[in-house]
Design a protein that fits this description.
This protein has ten helices and twelve strands. By secondary structure, the protein is an alpha+beta fold. The protein has two domains: 3-159, no CATH class; 184-373, Thrombin, subunit H, CATH 2.40.10. It has a six-stranded antiparallel beta barrel with strand order 1-2-3-6-5-4. A six-stranded antiparallel β-barrel has the order 7-8-9-12-11-10. Strand 11 (346-353) and strand 12 form a beta hairpin.
Length: 388
C-alpha cells in the first residue's frame, strides 16, 4: 500500500458519506453524465493535443479537455437526478435510496479509479507514474476488470510516444522484486556461443530516417527481429562481423511485434530457440546493439513470466503476449536482440523496457516467437506503416 492507495481510501470515505446523503438516484444520473463526459472528452482530446508539441502540453491539454467535458455532463446529470430524488416521498424509499447510494459510491469510485489511472499514467512524471504502478488497489482492479477501452490507449500514445510498443494496456503491471543477474562468466560464455549470430539492423524509410535495432540468426539466411524496428522501411540492412547485407522481409507481424528477414550471405550459425517456460531467478544475457552502436552483452535475470495485455506496435489494437519480465538494461537499439542462456540458447526476444523504472526489460518468450518460423513467405512481405 502506498500514498495513492491512502488517497483512494480517504476519497472513498467521503464518497460513501456523500452518496448516502444524496441518494442513489441522484448520483446515478450524475455518474451517467460523468461517463458520457469522459467518453466525449477522450474523442475530443486528440484534436486539442495536436495544438501542442511537447509531452507536458499534450498531457495538460488532454487532462483539461476530459475534465471540462466530464464536469459539464456530470453537472447536467446530477441536476436531472435531483429532480427525480424529490419524488421519493416515503421514508422507506428514502432510506433504501441512501443505503444503496453508499454502495453505489464505492462502485463508482473503483470504476473511476480504473479509468482515470489508465489516462493519468501517460503523464511525463515518472515518479508519479511509478506510484500508480505500485498501487495495490489499482493493480487489483487491473487484474479483476477487463482491459481499458482502446481509445484511452490511443490518447496515451499521442501524449507520450514511446521508443517501444506498449507492453500493457492502461497502468503497467507492478514490477517484481529484483533477482541476481547472470555473472561475468555466464556473460562471456553467452558472447562466445551467440555473439557472432547476433546482428545489427538498420532500416531506412519513413522520411528517409534510419531505425536501428538488433536481431539474431534463426535459420539459413534468416534473421529474427522486432516488427517495430523495420516498420515502414524501404531498405533494410543486416550488419554482422563480416559486412553489411541488404535483406528482404519474409514475415511481419505488427500485432505481437515479430519480423523475419532473409539474406543469403550470413555465415554465422543459427541459434536454437527454447520453447520451455523459464522460472523466476533464471540467469540470462541480453545481446544486441544499444543505441545503434557497438555490440554489447548485458547480464539479466528473469523476474516474472507474464500474460501481458497490451497494444500492437501502432497503439491501435489490443493484444495478448507471453512475456518475460527481467532485470537488465534495455534501451532503443536493443529491440529484436536475443535473451540467451550461457550456452547460446535463445529463450526470448527483447522488445520493450519499463516506462517508469530503469533496469527492467521485457522479452517475448521463446514459445511466443517460435511459431513465426512456420509462417515465412519466401517471396517477401510488406513492412506496412511507419512505427511512429
Amino acid at each position: 500500500m502506498n500514498i495513492i492507495d491512502l488517497i483512494i481510501i480517504l476519497i472513498g470515505g467521503v464518497m460513501i458519506y456523500r452518496w448516502y446523503k444524496a441518494g442513489l438516484v441522484r448520483n446515478l444520473f450524475a455518474v451517467g453524465g460523468l461517463f458520457v463526459g469522459i467518453v466525449i472528452g477522450l474523442f475530443v482530446a486528440p484534436g486539442v493535443m495536436s495544438l501542442f508539441k511537447d509531452s507536458v502540453g499534450k498531457f495538460a491539454g488532454a487532462i483539461l479537455t476530459i475534465a471540462l467535458t466530464t464536469l459539464a455532463f456530470g453537472t447536467l446529470g446530477e441536476a436531472m437526478g435531483m429532480k427525480l430524488n424529490i419524488r421519493l416521498q416515503s421514508k422507506n424509499a428514502q432510506k433504501i435510496n441512501s443505503v444503496a447510494g453508499s454502495f453505489g459510491g464505492v462502485i463508482f469510485l473503483l470504476l473511476f479509479v480504473w479509468l482515470a489511472s489508465a489516462i493519468i499514467i501517460s503523464s511525463p512524471f515518472k515518479t508519479f507514474n511509478s506510484q500508480l504502478e505500485n498501487s495495490a488497489i489499482i493493480q487489483f482492479l487491473n487484474r479483476r476488470l477487463p482491459p481499458t477501452p482502446p481509445i484511452i490507449d490511443r490518447v496515451n500514445a499521442l501524449v507520450k510516444p514511446l521508443d517501444f510498443p506498449q507492453v500493457f494496456s492502461g497502468v503497467p503491471q507492478k514490477l517484481s522484486e529484483p533477482v541476481a543477474p547472470a555473472g561475468s562468466v555466464a556473460v562471456q560464455e553467452a558472447v562466445q556461443n551467440a555473439g557472432k549470430s547476433t546482428v545489427k539492423i538498420e532500416a531506412r524509410g519513413c522520411g528517409n530516417a534510419i531505425s536501428n535495432g538488433s536481431g539474431f540468426i534463426v535459420g539459413e539466411g534468416l534473421v529474427m527481429t522486432n516488427a517495430h524496428v523495420i516498420a515502414g522501411a524501404t531498405e533494410i540492412s543486416i550488419i554482422d562481423t563480416t559486412g553489411t547485407y541488404i535483406s528482404v522481409p519474409v514475415y511481419f507481424d505488427p500485432t505481437v511485434d515479430i519480423a523475419i528477414l532473409k539474406t543469403p550471405k550470413l555465415s554465422a550459425k543459427s541459434l536454437n530457440i527454447s520453447t520451455k517456460q523459464f522460472s523466476r531467478g533464471q540467469e540470462a544475457v541480453v545481446l544486441g546493439f544499444p543505441g545503434g552502436g557497438n555490440f554489447r552483452a548485458e547480464p539479466a535475470g528473469i523476474t516474472n513470466t507474464i500474460f501481458a495485455r497490451g497494444l500492437d506496435i501502432y497503439g491501435q489494437t489490443q493484444v495478448n503476449r507471453d512475456v518475460y519480465e527481467f532485470i537488465g538494461n534495455v534501451v532503443q537499439g536493443n529491440s529484436g536482440g536475443p535473451l540467451v542462456l550461457s550456452d547460446g540458447t535463445v529463450i526470448g526476444m527483447v522488445f520493450a523496457s519499463s516506462q517508469n523504472n530503469q533496469g527492467y526489460g521485457y522479452a517475448l518468450t521463446g514459445e511466443e516467437i517460435s511459431t513465426a518460423l512456420k509462417l515465412i513467405n519466401q517471396s517477401g512481405v510488406s513492412t506496412q506503416a511507419c512505427y511512429q
